[in-house]
Design brief:
- By secondary structure, the chain is α+β, with helices and mostly antiparallel strands.
- The protein contains four helices and five strands.
- Helix 2 crosses helix 3.
- The radius of gyration is 17 Å and the shape is elongated.
């Protein structure tokens, strides 16, 4: 692949990532949700895993199949450079307004 082709490919990938991230502007991170509930993100992920809401696959948290398609979770993409100068993509979940309410309800039900 020529340098021009590589640059064009990277530009298309960046545009696609930006378009996907535009769908997450009204979403909040798990850290924010956890803080609102008085816990750490790790604790929240653990509780949601125990409740059968999330599972971890290849290092990424995913909704269990019965919860997909409900509009609870979206994914945000970030490009970063490693210390070796390589470009890497980080994908992480963010919660919609409905997702935040769902999580809050799940945690509150578990506390009773």
């Amino acid at each position: 692949m020529t340098k021009e082709e590589q640059m064009y490919r990277e530009e298309r990938q960046l545009r696609a990532m930006i378009d996907c991230n535009l769908l997450t502007t009204d979403c909040v991170t798990t850290a924010t949700v956890a803080k609102r509930l008085g816990m750490t993100p790790k604790q929240l992920y653990g509780r949601l895993k125990e409740r059968g809401v999330l599972y971890k696959s290849d290092g990424m948290w995913m909704l269990m199949p019965k919860y997909t398609g409900l509009g609870l979770l979206r994914y945000r993409y970030t490009l970063y450079d490693t210390l070796l100068g390589e470009k890497k993509l980080r994908v992480y979940p963010v919660w919609t307004k409905g997702g935040v309410e769902f999580v809050k309800k799940e945690i509150e039900e578990n506390n009773h």
